[in-house]
Amino acid sequence: MALQRTSLSELTYETLKERILDRKLAPGDRLNIDALTRDLGVSSSPVREALVRLQAEGLVVLELYAGYTVAPHPTREYLVKLYDFRVLVEGYCARIGAARKDPATIALLQSLVKRMGGTKRLGAQYKDYKKLGQADAQFHQAIVDSAGNEVLSEVYASKHTHLLMSRLFHERPDAGSPAGGVMDEHRAVLAAYEAGDGRAAESALVSHLEQSRRRLLG
C-alpha cells in the first residue's frame, strides 16, 4: 500500500509539473485542491504533497487566504543573474572537482552523459526534454558536489536552476533542434574531468553555460 501511495503521489506531482511547464496551467492560475482531486481522480493527499514539492521548487506559490497559484515566470533580469551565479559557483567547483580526479565522480558524469546522449531532439514540451533535463540537472549538481563543499552543494540545489529555466523552454528559439551541440559541450567538461585538468574543466563548463545562456535568452 505504501508503494502504491508513493507512486500515486509521484504521478500527481509529475502531472502538475508537466501542466505548469507546458503552460496548460498559466502563471497566476489558482490551484484549487478540490478541483484538482476531481480532475486527476485522486484523493487530496497526493495533490497536497505534490503542491508542497512544487512550492519548494518555485513552480507554485502559497498565499495566505488565497491558497496555491502557479508562480510567475522568472524575469529575464533574474535569469541573467542566475547564470552569473552558476558561472561563479559551477566554474569554481569544476576547477576544484576535476583536479581531484575522483573515480566515483567521473563514473557518475560518464553515466549521465551517456543518458543524455539518447536525446536526439530538445523539443518544447516537457515530455520531449524531460529525460535530457533531469540528467542535465544531475550532471551540473554532480559538478558542484565534486568540489566537496556541502554548503555550496546545498545552496546550489536550493536554487532549482533547471526548473526555473525550463519555464521558458516553451518559447526557446532552438526548440526541436538536435541536441548534438549541447552534448559536445558536456563531453568537453567530462573529458577535462577524466584528464584531471581543473582549469580545462572550468573553461569548458563556463563556455557551456554561456552557450546555454545564449540558447535560452537569445
Describe it.
This protein is mainly α and 218 residues long. Helices cover 70% and strands 4% of the residues. It has ten helices and two strands. A hairpin with a 3-residue loop joins strand 1 and strand 2 (67-70). The model has no long low-confidence stretch (mean pLDDT 89).
| Strand residue percentage | under 5%
Largest sheet: 2 strands, antiparallel
CA radius of gyration is: 18 Å
Which structural class fits the helix and strand makeup? mainly alpha
Work out the helix count. 10
Work out the helicity level: 55-70%
The unreliable regions are none
- Overall number of strands: 2
Overall shape: it is elongated
Strand order of the largest sheet: 1-2
The average pLDDT is: 89
Question: What is the string of helix and strand elements?
Answer: HHHEEHHHHHHH
Distance from N terminus to C terminus (CA atoms, Å) equals: 48 Å
